[in-house]
Design a protein that fits this description.
This protein is of the alpha+beta class. The protein contains 13 helices and 17 strands.
């Protein structure tokens, strides 16, 4: 860019940065020239550490100061991605059209705008971690000791009789089912329950659960709900019905719409099986919306596989909160007792298939990322880990996932040390096995096999 007119100096400050830089420009240059000059400057942007006033301290009063605002896609990437996805969904065809296999194949494979576990990479963290209502539903549905009101048994019998009938078209079945649901819930003002009905399996050109998922997304991406999406994840239950076959799903709107099945397909037919009838009664009892406290939570981090968060307690203590399918509290406590693991505060009972683990936050770096250490430092770290592993062996426990990603390197006045940080796969020797599902893309040590001791 050439300077046009009287040369002037602009002192620039990038919002979110602690550094300033100057741009030389002329009085006759236009805004595009200024953009180019700023873009070509190679100053590295750093985190904000001081106020604008402090940053410009010392610059003479006659100089012009410029504050540059980073676009939303840079400053707030999650908000930007959400906004981009909302605009995309608004342009999609109607739910009944989108859910047809030809359109679903075209849009979902290309854009992956819906987290519906199809294709397989369209996943998110478990739905139940976004709102406790979904976990409560599953617990109640699976609880064979759940007290069910007599009126629910009578309603269930009537519903089964109605849904087992054969209808000549979808509208008739839809009308009958909606009427039964209105009898049960008597609530139509808020989208806490979304229903999609097909007359029979194979009719209607699409899967009712897919169509319902897209209806959920279409409803909440309307312009009237745009502001609400910024602070609420819109928890919603979905009922998919194809003929007499029913399935319940849960949905939230995070960066993308997330829809996850909470039950399998259940037949609403009058089989001569009391346990089956009780199961259906529990299903609708568990769906009673007034039993749930749909309390809107803060959006969780965007990581589909690593259910691990750094948190802060009310007294400002930093902790780690983790959710996992299995955990060995005994092994963790044993290693903490010899200084080879973080302090463990809490291990919950299993809720909807997951334990919640709370432990202290320890400053450090995983061994895999430590490429700068001296040989003597590595030797100390390995000795620490050997001590921890041998201590577990003395209690007949095996640390089955001993990889560099599960070793945390810490540092104190005496130097570097190593501690163990993941006790999910610790088990009794020759008793417990490796999990059924192992990521085979990882370079595991010799002997690691599915269900192997």
């Amino acid at each position: 860019m050439s300077i046009d007119g009287t040369p002037i100096i602009l002192w620039c400050f990038v919002q979110g940065s602690s550094s300033i830089f100057k741009v030389n420009i002329g009085t006759n240059n236009d805004i595009d020239d200024l953009k180019e000059a700023i873009k070509n400057d190679d100053n590295e942007l750093k985190d904000e550490r001081s106020t604008i006033v402090n940053t410009f301290f010392g610059i003479e009063g006659r100089n012009i100061r410029v504050v540059i605002k980073i676009p939303v896609n840079v400053a707030f990437p999650n908000l930007y991605r959400t906004s981009k996805n909302v605009k995309k969904i608004r342009k999609y065809p109607s739910p009944s059209s989108f859910a047809q296999i030809s359109n679903l194949n075209e849009y979902q494979i290309k854009d992956q705008a819906f987290l519906i576990y199809r294709p397989s990479e369209c996943v998110s963290i478990p739905l139940k971690l976004y709102n406790s209502a979904f976990c409560n539903f599953q617990k109640n549905f699976e609880n064979k000791q759940l007290l069910v009101d007599k009126s629910y048994y009578q309603w269930t019998l009537n519903c089964i009789k109605t849904m087992a009938d054969i209808y000549s078209n979808e509208k008739l079945r839809q009308r009958e089912f909606h009427e039964k649901i209105r009898e049960l819930f008597r609530e139509e003002s808020i989208l806490y329950l979304l229903i999609e009905v097909k007359n029979e399996i194979g009719t209607g050109k699409c899967d009712p659960t897919n169509q319902a998922a897209i209806s959920f997304a279409k409803f909440y991406t309307q312009s009237k709900n745009e502001q609400m999406l910024k602070w609420c994840n819109m928890p919603c239950f979905i009922i998919g019905l194809a003929g007499p076959w029913i399935c319940v799903l849960g949905a939230v709107y995070v960066e993308k719409p997330l829809v996850e099945p909470l039950t399998n397909l259940i037949p609403l037919i009058p089989v001569n099986d009391r346990d089956h009838l009780k199961k259906i009664a529990r299903l609708f009892m568990a769906l009673r919306l007034e039993d749930f406290e749909l309390e809107y939570k803060e959006k969780l981090v965007d990581d589909s596989y690593k259910l691990l968060w750094k948190a802060e307690t009310k007294d400002k203590q930093m902790i780690i909160v983790k959710f996992t399918h299995r955990y060995n509290k005994e092994a963790h406590d044993l290693c903490y007792g010899i200084g080879k693991a973080p302090r463990l505060f809490y291990v919950s009972d299993k809720q909807c298939g997951l334990h919640m683990i709370v432990m202290e936050f320890v400053e450090g770096q995983i061994l895999r990322d430590c490429v700068h250490l001296a040989q003597s430092d590595y030797e100390v770290i390995i000795n620490d880990i050997e001590e921890a592993v041998l201590h577990l062996h003395g209690k007949n426990l095996v640390f089955a996932d001993l990889r560099d990603s599960n070793i945390l390197v810490t540092r104190d006045s005496e130097g570097y040390h190593g501690i163990l940080i993941d006790f999910d796969w610790v088990g009794r020797e020759n008793v417990e096995c490796y999990p059924l599902f192992i990521n085979l893309d990882i370079a595991w040590p010799t002997g690691v096999e599915i269900m192997n001791h």
